[in-house]
Specification:
Number of helices: 3
CATH architecture: Roll
Largest sheet: 5 strands, antiparallel
Mean pLDDT: 86
Helix content: 40-55%
Structural class: alpha+beta
Strand content: 25-35%
Shape: elongated
Number of domains: 1
Radius of gyration: 21 Å
Length: 152
């Protein structure tokens, strides 16, 4: 009886370890896949966004962004973000996660998340950028900047 219990605990433990290994391999595969496509895109768009010009930045975002956000609000946001000053450089983007899902309205979608450290004239910023994978290109789905320079 105890032998049987240890046998089942061993099987459950091996199953759990196998699941962890499968998730790690899949995550590594996805990360390497997006490092070839998403990283160059991020390195191209962050300097454009960091010019704080809404006319240049607007085409980079998914169109749904502007369904609930007026141009005036977007302009206010960019004026506030411009407190960071001029972008000096960015570090290499760090892969955070990939999420695939489906909705009735939009169908299937894949969103890739990266974190980037940006060095600006008035301080450093941590940028979280979520990209909508549109098969042949990307669009910015979410863009967040954290910086102490924005508080001052």
């Amino acid at each position: 009886m105890i032998k049987n219990m240890f046998k089942w605990l061993g099987i459950i433990f091996l199953g759990f370890i196998s699941l962890i290994i499968i998730v790690a391999v899949y995550s590594g595969y996805k990360q390497s896949e997006y490092n070839e496509t998403a990283v160059p895109y991020i390195k191209k768009v962050i300097p454009i966004i960091s010019e704080w010009d809404i006319e240049k930045a607007k085409p980079l975002f998914v169109s749904a962004t502007f369904e609930n956000t007026s141009d005036e609000d977007f302009e206010k946001l960019f004026r506030w973000l411009s407190k960071l000053g001029t972008l000096k450089n960015i570090e290499d983007p760090t892969f955070t996660q990939v999420h695939s899902g489906a909705t009735i309205q939009d169908g299937t979608s894949t969103i890739v998340t990266y974190t980037v450290i940006g060095h600006y004239e008035n301080g450093d910023a941590t940028i979280t950028i979520r990209l909508l994978d549109s098969e042949d290109s990307f669009e910015i789905y979410h863009f967040k900047i954290n910086s102490l320079a924005l508080i001052e």
